[in-house]
Design a protein that fits this description.
Elements (H helix, E strand, L loop, with lengths): L10 H13 L3 H13 L2 E2 H8 L3 H13 L3 E6 L2 E6 L1 H7 L2 H4 L7
Antiparallel strand pairs: 1-3, 2-3
């Protein structure tokens, strides 16, 4: 009988994955990720009407995605632009789900 080996994850690693999966467990946040995958980097003012949200509510959702390291933020003057952190999404999602957040080439 062959013994099965298991990979033991640290508490910190588990907490990191928990944060990421909680971040994508919301329909609005999935919608935000999908829009950014299709349109590229966007500021809150341009993204808000596409998700039918006020800028303050959208900022709340963007912060959750940022804290989970699923978005990248670049500030230029008073404008902040958000884009997918494709590296993190690739590591987190299966090939099947990952294609939802990758632009077609």
């Amino acid at each position: 009988m062959q013994e099965t080996t298991y990979c033991t994850l640290s508490s910190d690693t588990l907490a990191t994955f928990e944060k990421k999966f909680k971040a994508i467990s919301d329909q609005k946040r999935l919608q935000i990720l999908n829009i950014l995958s299709n349109k590229g980097a966007m500021c809150v003012g341009d993204l808000a009407p596409l998700v039918d949200m006020t800028q303050s509510k959208l900022s709340y959702h963007l912060k959750i995605l940022l804290d989970a390291d699923l978005l990248l933020k670049e500030t230029s003057g008073t404008w902040s632009f958000y884009e997918l952190n494709q590296h993190e999404l690739n590591q987190l999602l299966s090939d099947e789900l990952c294609c939802m957040f990758k632009p077609e080439n």
